[in-house]
């Protein structure tokens, strides 16, 4: 399933597997360092990994070390109890928020669940229009308002509308203008507060969308959002057509947050649940 990510770590894999006919069971530390760097794992993390391993590294040790970086991905919050399950989607403009919202909605629909979208990026008229277009395309209801109106009001109305209609999932879009961070921080905090007023415990998941093609530079962006609101987990987009698989390790390790899904295309179906074991297995297979 994660075969498309393999390219970036291909050399690492090849080095470990290269000696035929028997798979090489060990690899030197220096060599491992070079290979992980080539695979776009950040320098700091490579150092950390290499230092934690002996002079020659057994495959199984490398596997265990890599998998341990994703320990936060093991825990998942699933919908339970009262409807709706509310998800707040944050991230910078262009990261893939709108598209990912459509993908999540499509996924829930295909599981037989009902979904309602909230267009709370009221800062950009285009964002409202884009989400409306997606809502029409995947045939789910949407709550929206005019550009410039209070985004918290949209979130509040979306949750109440879903409560009244007994809808399973509410997915709320937010603004991503990181250049005016202070305003955005206040805006996001208020949306979170108001969600809680509309429904106790909401939003149940605050998900950060990161552009996978940005590799390690997405980490700083993520830290900025983490400071604004308490992010629960990440979705990494645009991992198709790029081989920055190594960046996933750095993102998971640096942010200490679960990766829920990865985006692998522009269509509503192009969202894959992230399974750390499967990912590391594919890479070391
Ligand atoms: P937003 O500004 O954060 O809402 O970002 P959009 O959802 O508008 O996405 C920005 C661009 O990235 C659009 O052209 C999307 O089609 C594209 N995009 C989003 N997710 C993916 C993905 O997983 N793969 C690819 N190839 N493109 C994506």
TrEMBL record:
It catalyses: GTP + H2O = GDP + phosphate + H(+). Residues 258-271 form the SRP54-type proteins GTP-binding domain. It is a peripheral membrane protein. Its EC number is 3.6.5.4. It is found in: Cell membrane; Cytoplasm. Its main location: membrane. The keyword Cell membrane applies. GTP binds at residues 91-98, 173-177, 237-240. Belongs to the GTP-binding SRP family. FtsY subfamily. Part of the signal recognition particle protein translocation system, which is composed of SRP and FtsY. This is Signal recognition particle receptor FtsY. The chain holds residues 1 to 285 of 377 of the full protein.
């Amino acid at each position: 399933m994660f075969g498309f990510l393999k390219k970036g770590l291909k050399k690492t894999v090849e080095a470990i597997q290269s000696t035929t006919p028997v798979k090489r069971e060990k690899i030197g530390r220096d060599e491992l360092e070079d290979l992980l760097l080539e695979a776009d794992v950040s320098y700091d993390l490579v150092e950390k990994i290499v230092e934690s391993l002996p002079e020659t590294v057994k495959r199984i040790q490398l596997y265990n070390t890599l998998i341990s970086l994703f320990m936060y991905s093991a825990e998942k919050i699933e919908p339970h109890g009262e409807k709706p399950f509310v998800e707040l989607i944050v991230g910078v403009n262009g990261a893939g928020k709108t598209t990912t919202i459509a993908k999540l909605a499509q996924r829930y629909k295909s599981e037989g669940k009902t979904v309602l979208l909230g267009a709370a990026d009221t800062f950009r008229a285009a964002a409202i229009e884009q989400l409306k277009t997606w809502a029409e395309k995947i045939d789910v209801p949407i709550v929206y308002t005019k550009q410039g109106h209070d985004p918290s009001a949209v979130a509040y109305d979306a949750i109440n509308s879903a409560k009244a209609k007994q809808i399973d999932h509410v997915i709320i879009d937010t603004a991503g203008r990181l250049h005016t961070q202070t305003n955005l921080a206040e805006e996001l905090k208020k949306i979170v507060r108001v969600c809680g007023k509309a429904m106790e415990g909401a939003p149940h998941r605050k998900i950060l969308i990161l552009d996978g093609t940005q590799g390690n530079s997405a980490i700083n962006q993520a830290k900025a959002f983490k400071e604004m609101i308490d992010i629960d987990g990440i979705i990494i987009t645009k991992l198709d057509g790029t081989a920055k698989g190594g960046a996933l390790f750095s993102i998971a390790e640096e942010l200490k947050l679960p990766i829920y899904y990865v985006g692998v295309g522009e269509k509503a179906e192009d969202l894959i649940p992230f399974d750390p074991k499967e990912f590391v297995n594919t890479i070391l297979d």
